[in-house]
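User: Hi! I have a protein structure encoded as tokens and I'd like to know what sequence might fold into it. I'm fairly new to this, so please keep things simple.
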């Protein structure tokens, strides 16, 4: 996992009810397959009333304005659309598939604010190279080129962190170990000239941890064996 954008905040912005905000972020790394974004409400002392986004998404900027190369990829939160957090809180999106960008590109994080709930966002008012585009009474999380007319340069709204990882990187890799068990005694029965001996190749059922008896469990032809 690699951080490709980060910022700190010095102000609060509380006037975003019903707005769609498209935050342009200058990044420092290449795509690895997936991205996730951390969002921050206004500070605890702001009395903004929290932050509620109906939807959020992310895409690769094309040109110099608010457009993305394709329809932005929606960012989900524990599998759900949007989120609500209190003043002073932050939230991290689920991993979303987004590839095809390099450190020479900029990413656009789209935030569609709820039209009723108070919208307090943390803000960095002196972030060179960043721009946010905005428009009232609209939603654009699933629009590639909304054509917003208003923007403010050198400001970051709400987004404190963008990270990337290889697709599927969130899971734990479990290595398979091949055990060769040679020539051990079988139950007493006639097996011709090789009576009492046979060879087997087996994988552990789950891990190579011993059971409570200090033995490792294998599965041979769907039967449990201990060694």
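Assistant: Happy to help. Inverse folding works backwards from shape to sequence: for each of the 227 positions I chose a residue that suits the local structure. Here it is:
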């Amino acid at each position: 996992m690699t951080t490709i954008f980060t910022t700190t905040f010095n102000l609060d912005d509380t006037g975003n009810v019903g707005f769609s905000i498209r935050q342009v972020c200058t990044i420092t790394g290449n795509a690895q397959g997936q991205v996730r974004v951390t969002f921050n409400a206004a500070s605890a002392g702001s009395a903004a009333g929290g932050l509620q986004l109906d939807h959020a998404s992310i895409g690769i900027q094309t040109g110099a304005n608010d457009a993305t190369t394709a329809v932005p990829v929606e960012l989900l939160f524990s599998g759900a659309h949007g989120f609500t957090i209190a003043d002073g809180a932050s939230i991290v999106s689920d991993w979303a598939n987004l590839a095809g960008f390099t450190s020479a590109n900029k990413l656009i994080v789209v935030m569609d604010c709820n039209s009723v709930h108070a919208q307090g966002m943390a803000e960095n008012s002196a972030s060179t190279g960043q721009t946010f585009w905005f428009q009232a009474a609209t939603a654009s999380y699933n629009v590639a080129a909304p054509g917003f007319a208003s923007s403010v340069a050198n400001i970051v709204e709400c987004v404190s962190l963008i990270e990337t990882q290889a697709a599927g990187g969130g899971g734990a890799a479990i290595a398979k170990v091949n055990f060769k068990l040679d020539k051990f005694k079988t139950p007493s029965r006639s097996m011709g000239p090789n009576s009492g001996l046979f060879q087997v190749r087996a994988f552990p059922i789950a891990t190579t941890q011993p059971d409570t008896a200090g033995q490792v469990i294998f599965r041979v032809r769907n039967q449990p064996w201990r060694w």
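A useful reference point when you look it over: The chain has two domains: 2-166, 179-226. Feel free to ask if any position seems puzzling.
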